[in-house]
Amino acid sequence: MEILRIVAMFMIISLHYLDKGGILRDFSEKPSLFHEIAWIIEAFAMVSVNIYVLISGYFLAESEFKLKKLIMLWIQIILYSWIITGIVAIAGGQVIKDKGIYDLIPLVLPVTGSHYWFATIYVLMYACFPFMNKAIKAMDKKKHRTAIIVGVLIFSAWNTFLPMTIPVTDKDGMDICWFAILYLIAAYLRKYGNEIKLNKWLSLAIYVLCSVLIYSLGKGLLLADMVVGKLGGFAENFYPYNSLFTLIGSVALFIFFMKSSFNMPKWIGKVILWASAGCFGVYLLHEHQLIRYEWPKLFNTAKYADTPLFLLNMIVSVVCVFIVGICIDYIRRLIVSLFMKIGGKKND
């Protein structure tokens, strides 16, 4: 699961590289080789956010609520927002000078101000998970499965295939309702995962197939649009986090890792645990409002967008962001641990 968490974070950084780096152009734009490669990578990486929520739900489904953990999570988000904002302000960054008072609210109140949409929804999910666990424990297997099917039909299948969307379900999976559906699925996998007869390699094949379909069905709609018209606007319907194909691919990839075991030296296992512990910090660092459009410029993403060096630049950029992020978060954890030890001694 921790390996999958790291894989998911690499995917998330890749999505931001493509989007914030200006690599992704309009899906319907006249195709070029690297334009198409970017959208194919996007299709394979769209499972990342769902995966991250599934991992959390998988563990939380058998956990007890801890107020301290919620507070520490809230503090972590605030620290990243405040410290980065302070550093940029001290450095005299133009990006902060151009912001009005209203624009500064998310930087000061990052959780309630939705500085990071994922962090805000994740905090809400953590605050709600004990109530969800009680509801899940009251369900038998059939009711649990039915709840998932109904939720997926309303919040996923509807938006994927029907042009008439319901406003409450049309947030591309960036809302608490979608996270709740993913939590239900994760809890089901935790309770009944051993009964799933799906071969792990077949699961991996399903993930690959869904990713290919996300891209190819969109391109198919564009071709159909050239004939019948008025279909081009739906070409990206298969990409959102709550797309049915993204969901199926997410669950399939999760099952692949759930059913896999990796033999490795203990020191590699420790490195993986150390790196996975800093994944959320990687997100809070590179997706900070004052940084999210700046770090791609540091790696000259636009310069390499339509060149053979595009993929190499992407790999180097993503790896560097991840390594810097986990190292910074490790320093944060050391400092927080030190303060807690000092506080503990004073209380004694």
Q: Which whole number gives the mean pLDDT?
A: 88
Largest sheet: none
Query: What order do the SSEs take from the amino end to the carboxyl end, as H and E?
Result: HHHHHHHHHHHHHHHH
The gyration radius over C-alpha positions equals 21 Å
Uncertain spans: none
Estimate percent helicity: over 70%
Number of beta-strand segments: 0
User: What is the overall silhouette?
Assistant: globular
Number of helices: 16
Write the layout of secondary structure elements.
Elements: H1 2-20, H2 33-45, H3 48-60, H4 67-90, H5 94-97, H6 101-108, H7 117-137, H8 141-161, H9 176-192, H10 200-228, H11 244-258, H12 266-277, H13 279-286, H14 295-298, H15 301-304, H16 310-347
What does this structure look like?
With 348 residues, this protein is mostly helical. 72% of the residues lie in helices and 0% in strands. The chain is built from 16 helices and no strands. The protein has helices at 2-20, 33-45, 48-60, 67-90, 94-97, 101-108, 117-137, 141-161, 176-192, 200-228, 244-258, 266-277, 279-286, 295-298, 301-304, 310-347. Helix 1 (2-20) packs parallel to helix 13 (279-286), helix 3 packs across helix 9 and helix 3 crosses helix 11 (244-258). 34% of the residues are buried.
